[in-house]
């Protein structure tokens, strides 16, 4: 009876154990790394040399070997099949490697764009700061300005202290305010 009440509840899952067929797991990153290494190797002179040697040896074996040892006669149909099979696997691996490189390039381009935006904002900030400093310096008396003012005051004082040109009464030199 307890078993039937337990099953009657909708919020309690059934205790049914199913044997699920386990799919083989694959690590897409590891496979992608393999594809990149394979594509990188296929773009080397070593790979071209190995493929050339393979084809030459295949052709020489099937032309020069005794009839009982030959496995692919002159049109080399089996060799064509092998090369087509190699190409059918190589093309998707190369495309996978290119897609992974494109994704990396996209991430790097986004990081570069963000760094450029930060540098642009920093440059705008520094330009505003330099402009405000120029305005502040424009309002401040500079050393050259102070020197010229002091020289003119000194010249005025020297003019007043020269005897004979002006009256001897210092009260007359002072202008009324």
Structure description:
The protein is mainly α. The protein has one domain (27-157). Helices cover 72% and strands 0% of the residues. The chain contains six helices and no strands. The chain has helices spanning 2-8, 28-42, 45-64, 77-139, 143-161, 170-173. Helix 2 (28-42) crosses helix 4 (77-139). The chain starts with a helix and ends with a helix. It holds the Pfam family DUF1003. This is DUF1003 domain-containing protein.
Spans where pLDDT lies below 50 across 5 or more residues: none
SS class? mainly alpha
Q: Please write the string of helix (H) and strand (E) elements.
A: HHHHHH
Mean pLDDT: 85
Strand coverage percent? under 5%
Report the count of strand segments.
0
**How many distinct domains?**
1
Percentage of residues in helical conformation: over 70%
> Total number of helical segments?
6
Main sheet, how many strands, which sense, barrel?
none
Rg (C-alpha, Å): 46 Å
| Shape field | elongated
Q: Distance between termini? A: 119 Å
Summarize the structure.
The protein is mainly α and 177 residues long. The protein has helices spanning 2-8, 28-42, 45-64, 77-139, 143-161, 170-173.
Give structural attributes.
single chain; 177 residues; mainly alpha; 6 helices; elongated; DUF1003 domain-containing protein; DUF1003; membrane; transmembrane; transmembrane helix
């Amino acid at each position: 009876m307890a078993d039937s009440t337990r099953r009657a509840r909708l919020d309690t899952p059934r205790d049914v154990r199913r044997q699920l067929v386990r799919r083989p797991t694959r690590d897409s990153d590891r496979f992608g790394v393999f594809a990149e290494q394979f594509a990188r190797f296929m773009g080397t002179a070593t790979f071209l040399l190995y493929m050339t040697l393979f084809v030459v040896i295949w052709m020489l074996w099937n032309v020069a070997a005794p009839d009982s040892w030959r496995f692919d006669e002159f049109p080399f149909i089996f060799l064509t099949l092998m090369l087509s099979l190699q190409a059918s696997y190589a093309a998707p691996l190369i495309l996978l490697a290119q897609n992974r490189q494109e994704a990396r390039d996209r991430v790097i381009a986004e990081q570069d764009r963000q760094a450029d935006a930060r540098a642009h904002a920093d440059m705008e900030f520094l330009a505003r700061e330099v402009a405000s400093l120029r305005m502040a310096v424009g309002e401040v008396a500079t050393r050259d300005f102070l020197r010229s003012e002091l020289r003119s005051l000194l010249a005025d004082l020297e003019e007043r202290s020269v005897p004979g040109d002006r009256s001897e009464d210092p009260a007359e030199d002072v202008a009324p305010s």
